[in-house]
Amino acid sequence: MNKILEVENLETNFFGKNEVVEAVREVSFNIYEGETFGLIGESGCGKSVTCLSILRLIRYPGKISGGSIIYKGINLLELSGKEMIGYRGNEIGMIFQEPMTALNPVLTIREQIYEALRDKKLTKSDKEEKAIEFLKIVGIPSGKERLSEYPHQFSGGMRQRAMIAAVLVSKPKLLLADEPTTALDVTIQDQIIKLINRLKKEFSMSVLLVTHDLGVVAEMCDRVAVMYAGKIMETAGILALFGEPRHPYTVGLRNSIPYIGSQNEKLHPIEGSPPDLSNPPKGCPFEPRCIYKEKICEKILPELKEIKPGHFSRCHFIEKLENEKGIIKL
Amino acid sequence: MAIQNKEIILKVENLYKWFPLKRTILDAITKKPIRNVKAVDGVSMGIYTGENIGLVGESGCGKSTLAKTIIRLYEPTSGKINFKGGDFTLLKGKNLREKRTDIQMIFQDPYSSLNPKMSVKETLVEAIKYHKICETSEIGLKMNELLDMVNIPRYVADRFPREFSGGQRQRISIARALAVNPELILADEPVSSLDVSIQMQIINLLSDLKNKLNLTVLFISHNLRVVEYITDRVAVMYLGKIVEIGNSKKIFDFPAHPYTNILTKATPVLDPRKRSNKVVIEGEVPSPLNVPTGCRFHPRCPFADDICKKVEPEMRLISKDRYVSCHKPLLKELS
User: For residues B56 and B266, what is the distance between their CA atoms, to the nearest angstrom?
Assistant: First the structure.
């Protein structure tokens, strides 16, 4: 399979008055054509910033300070601003968590979808036909009437569908989905998950899914990277991640959610809270909360080591985790 | 966690909370009927002393309104709230203030439910002083005790909410609720705004405190996995009404109401091998302004027939301590 996106040693920093927040620190991963790659972690771990960095949407005082983002062989970080515009939307589309804030409240859905069709030299009726077609694809009936409505007239689920339609009209090859279902109810979340899974196949897209919800990951992803404090801690295939997690943080996440088989025992969540990224720890960032830590962890950051083909973990003591159970039995 | 004594601490009977929509002068002249948002539309339920009961349902189904009406932050439109054998609905002024210390609420968003201009100490002491929980000389002691209970170090008592993380703020909210020695805690989505690793810390803290202080907890959440994990019983709400109530484990393993079934199915399974492409239920919850006739779930129910369209089902007992309001429950009889 071909790689559609290669992110190599990406670093994104935010420069405050007195401090620098290192939001993304040497993050590397690949996305293959046709796969859904998950980026999971808790708020503030840098997953959304990674996503925005790919589209080069990091604004002042933030800055991409290093690394490369290779999309289909071209380093996006070396493109001029004008060239980059050609990639946004047309090649790489993005959907956001809160469709109410991502859609413009004073424009009708028609105007927002037409905006994506602006440069395509289409007549008005072509555009309308296309917009209605895409609303139908994402499951919004009577598109003709709904095109003239504003985002506030749509329900949360419908707004998310409308946003997906506005992104899809440009037929991107890579879809960045930043917590697309977090603000939705379970039944609507289920609809949107299945919609994205279906569209991925229909439009032969690759998807980068950013989420904190292991349930959504289980429903959508092929491979997953677990992020913590701006760094990737573990990368694995979906079954390996659920079956044999090999990083203390991933194991801790498993211990933080009730699942079948854990109902009768007391769960032991990770203690403490994530580190402050304006002053990231020198050694392993998870060290203060880790139950396997030893002296070395405080001082030296472990490398991301390949422990099995395709399964990487950043831990000094991977062997201690060999008997850790996963959520599922493989 | 079995319920030893089946004493009822709180009983709600036919509780309604409707919010009337604003009428324009034109509406009044043309005599258009007043339209109501039927947030809580006839709820009857009991909470046993010492139990942890869950309340689940999708957003807008009236979970939070029910909790706020129980504690009388909203005045009920009609219906009765009976707390420890006394009528809570008609209490006013001083009596209400006194009784309210027995029921306390924890809110979803610890960022907006703590006063940003008050330090932790001020927040806690305010509640203690106002309700005269202890002697003035003992306030400091009481405060330290509260901070210890929720694992907030004593030396941070002078700090302000902005200096704490979300999880810590929620601990402070819990301490504030406990300051007045309540018996019943209404926890309205206490962990939904927190990170996964912090969520379970707070949940474990709540259940430890519940056992230690003999509290009764109504745990409102939309996360079925968490509710199944911590609660003894659960009530499922849909469009202002409770559709099913009973033992949590039994309800989630064998749902009797089609809506409960759909909720459990829509919750992602934590097993990538059990993925499916089939959408569990199409469409969305109807507006509480226009509640469907008959069974309010019938337009979306895969099993609905004529009777469901016309007749609103009664709540009925289908097995021990298990009530369902459905004409055609998925479980007929359970031993």
Answer: 13
Q: How far apart are CA A325 and CA A60, in angstroms?
A: 44
CA-to-CA distance for B284 and A157, rounded, in angstroms? 8
Please give the distance of CA A265 from its chain centroid, rounded to a whole number.
32
Mind listing the pLDDT tens digit for each residue in A134-154? 999 999 988 899 999 999 999
Contact B279 A191 (CB under 8 A): yes
The tally of CA atoms less than 13 A away on the side-chain side of residue A306 is 4
Optimal mutation site among A140, A186, A251, interface B, most CBs of chain B within 10 A: A186
ipTM over 0.90: no
Count of other CB atoms within 10 angstroms of residue B269: 18
pLDDT band of B1, cuts 50, 70, 90: very low
Which among A219, A242, A258 has CB closest to B225?
A258
Is B198–A193 a contact, with Cβ atoms under 8 angstroms apart? Answer: no
Write out chain B residues lying below 8 Å of A189, CB-based.
266, 268
Strands (DSSP E) along chain B, which ranges?
Answer: 8-20, 36-48, 52-56, 78-83, 86-87, 103-106, 184-188, 216-221, 233-238, 241-247, 316-319, 322-324
pLDDT of residue A15: 94
Give the gap in angstroms from C-alpha A205 to the nearest C-alpha of chain B: 17
In angstroms, the CA A231 to CA A313 distance is 11
Say whether A121 sits in a helix, a strand or coil. Answer: coil
Strand order in the sheet with B322-324: B103-106, B184-188, B216-221, B52-56, B233-238, B241-247, B322-324, B316-319
Question: In this complex, do A194 and B225 lie within 8 Å of one another by their Cβ atoms?
Answer: no
Q: Which tokens in the block code for residue A154? A: 């749509």
Residue B285 tokens, joined: 């919850």
Low-confidence ranges of chain A (pLDDT < 50): none
* Cβ pair B279:A190 closer than 8 A: yes
Structure tokens at A294: 């030893």
CB A41 within 8 A of CB A52: no
Q: Which residue in the set A186, A197, A263 is minimally distant from B266, CB to CB? A: A186
- Candidate from A42, A155, A187 with C-beta closest to B266: A187
Among B204, B221, B271, the residue to mutate for chain A (most A Cβ within 10 A): B271
Q: Could you report the per-residue pLDDT of A90-109, keeping only the tens digit for each? A: 999 999 888 788 899 999 99
The bridge status of strand A62-71 relative to strand B8-20 is unpaired
**Are A143 and A136 within 8 A, CB to CB?**
yes
Q: Which residue of A has its CA nearest to B267?
A: A186
Domains of chain A: 3-221 (3.40.50.300), 228-321 (no CATH)
- Residue B113 burial by Cβ neighbours in a 10 Å radius (0-12, 13-18, 19+): middle
| Distance from C-alpha of B233 to C-alpha of B214, rounded to nearest angstrom | 17
B313 DSSP 8-state letter: P
Q: Is the peptide bond before A61 cis (omega within 30 degrees of 0)?
A: yes
